[in-house]
Write a structure and sequence with these properties.
Layout: H1 3-18, H2 23-31, H3 37-44, E1 51-53, E2 76-83, E3 86-93, H4 104-120, E4 124-128, H5 139-155, E5 161-165, E6 168-170, H6 175-179, E7 182-186, E8 191-193, H7 197-204, H8 210-214, H9 216-223, E9 228-230, H10 233-246, H11 285-292, E10 299-301, E11 309-316, E12 319-326, H12 337-352, E13 357-363, H13 370-374, H14 377-390, E14 395-404, H15 405-410, E15 420-423, E16 428-430, H16 434-446, H17 452-466, H18 470-475, E17 481-482, H19 488-499
Parallel strand pairs: 3-4, 4-5, 5-7, 6-8, 7-9, 12-13, 13-14, 14-15, 14-16, 15-17
Antiparallel strand pairs: 1-2, 2-3, 10-11, 11-12
Length: about 525
């Protein structure tokens, strides 16, 4: 065979590899409203930047007549490219090849990409569409998954790891995404579960649909497994690209700076009237966030899960920050099991990758009740406390209204290494609300009074004057300054500038033991 023939053969095999499981399977795949693995990679990466590896790799299984069927690439497209001009490593599972099931060689391809990402300090992104382990390969397939899980753990906190779910991922196919930092899913077209509806019916005698058991709506609102549920694959891919824009390449770098025309000296006058006169009335914390961040752009995480706390990414004067905020519109902004876990995981991610955290506080306490106590609200609430205590990044706190009891301590207070803590004049920093405190302190005395209600009202006012305001905390230095609400954006930017070279360390140890 001469050179021309060899090049011709190469091009033919390259074209065959690009077809994955073949044209007929691609047609069937697209009929379900799904893009191919290669189309997803092209959508995700900057045009013309994809460098593919292991294009011609095939499986090595000779049982169950598997030797009769080989596809180049063996069901996963792997390589590197750029997103917004920055290097990333990516793998995209191909459902048209053996249902995207993982074989020994398939696992080797992904492991190679993960190792390269870790060695080169670049994010690793998985575009998942897999039915799980390739049962024809038995232990080799399970070993392949285990090698991937190990890399997920070793890479955690060193490089960002993002996952998208584009199809029915089951069994081992969901553990790797669960070990990554963020997961996006497609509404009505992607699913995650360890055991499918058939097994659930057989073992548990429960009738449940695929969507109810593991759909994007369920995982984004009830389980909290999913961080974003997009209407289409394009939405999820754009979300992944947006997330990366807030992140450094690895834990040794700083976040990218993004130019903005939003003035650092911009006042927000409407914040002077956002807090209702009735201290028990709700207001929209997201409106507060949007009005202070650069260009009103806030990328929320887990928007439909544990809505009594808000977490997400934004920028102040071009600099990436993570935002954590109690949300008075949901459960009055109390902390509970789900919101504590949601907040803790987000704070720890930001701490891993040198992203300052801005905390907006309006929290009346922890949610009471047997359901919370029986399900370990103590341990779960402690997760958020642990995350804030452990974090060595710049931490800026703004108390807008209520900061009561243990929840005050947890929400990045000065006492757990909050760097700069501000309070609005409308804030109340106390063990509990004035009404409750007066009842506890003076309830017995009130019973002996001619007019107990009037007596308690006086004590409520007395408690408010002494404790339910930010000035007592400020007098002790627990609040660094009481600020005009309209100045919030300006003061946050000033605080970020003042802490940008912060250096803080924790005691030497292998790792802590977070209350799981």
């Amino acid at each position: 065979m001469n050179t021309a023939d060899k090049i011709k053969l190469f091009k033919e095999r390259k074209a065959e590899a690009r077809l994955g499981g073949g044209e007929s399977r691609i047609v069937k795949h697209k009929a379900q409203g799904k893009a191919t693995a290669r189309e997803r990679v092209e959508l995700f990466l900057d045009p013309g930047t994809f460098e593919e590896f292991d294009t011609f790799k095939t499986h090595r299984c000779y049982d169950f007549d598997m030797e009769k069927t080989h596809f180049y690439g063996d069901g996963v497209v792997t390589g590197c490219g750029k997103v917004n001009g920055r290097l990333v490593y990516v793998f995209a599972q191909d459902f048209t090849v053996f249902g995207g099931s993982l074989s020994e060689t398939y696992g080797e391809k992904i492991v190679k990409i993960m190792d390269l990402a870790l060695k080169n300090g670049a994010p690793c992104i998985g575009l998942n569409d897999s039915g799980g382990a390739r049962i024809q390969e038995g232990i080799e397939s399970l070993a392949g998954y285990s090698y991937i899980f190990l890399r997920n753990v070793l890479s955690s906190g060193v490089i960002p790891q993002l996952s998208a779910i584009f199809g029915p991922c089951a069994g081992g196919a969901v553990y790797s995404p669960a070990l990554t930092d963020f997961i996006g899913m497609v509404q009505n077209n992607s699913y995650m579960f360890l055991t499918g509806p058939g097994v659930v019916k057989t073992v548990c005698h429960e009738d449940v649909t695929t969507e109810e058991l593991g759909g994007a709506s369920m995982h984004s609102s009830r389980s909290g497994v999913c961080d974003f549920a997009g209407a289409s694959e394009v939405d999820v891919i754009e979300w992944l690209r947006t997330l990366l824009s807030y992140m450094p390449q690895n834990n040794m770098e700083t976040t990218p700076f993004v130019e903005t025309n939003d003035p650092a000296t911009r006042r927000v006058p409407e914040l002077n009237t956002i807090i209702p006169d009735n201290m028990n009335a709700a207001y929209d914390m997201k409106q507060l966030i949007l009005s202070t961040v650069d260009d009103g752009i806030f990328t929320e995480i887990k928007a439909n899960f544990a809505q009594n706390i808000i977490v997400g990414f934004a920028r102040y004067n071009g600099r990436s920050v993570g935002i954590v905020a109690n949300n008075p519109l949901n459960l009055a902004g109390v902390l509970d099991i789900d919101s504590s876990k949601k907040g803790a995981r987000f704070v720890r991610f930001c701490d891993c990758f040198n992203i300052p955290v801005i905390t907006f506080v309006d929290v009346p306490g922890f949610l009471p009740g047997t359901n919370q106590e029986f399900n370990a609200v103590i341990l779960n609430g402690a997760k958020l406390l642990y995350a804030y205590c452990e974090a060595t990044i710049p931490k800026i706190t703004i108390i807008t209204r209520k900061a009561y009891g243990g929840a005050y301590c947890v929400m990045s207070s000065k006492h757990i290494r909050g760097d700069i803590n501000y309070a609005w004049p409308t804030s109340e920093v106390a063990v509990m609300g004035a009404s409750g405190a007066a009842g506890v302190l003076h309830g017995r005395n009130a019973q002996s009074m001619d007019n107990p209600q009037e007596f308690l009202a006086e004590k409520v006012e007395e408690y408010q004057d002494k404790f339910s305001n930010p000035y007592v905390a400020a007098s002790r230095g627990y609040i660094d300054d009481i600020i005009e609400p309209a100045e919030t954006r300006i003061r946050i930017i000033n605080a970020l500038n003042a802490t940008q070279d912060k250096r803080d360390t924790n005691p030497m140890k292998k790792h802590g033991n977070i209350p799981l």
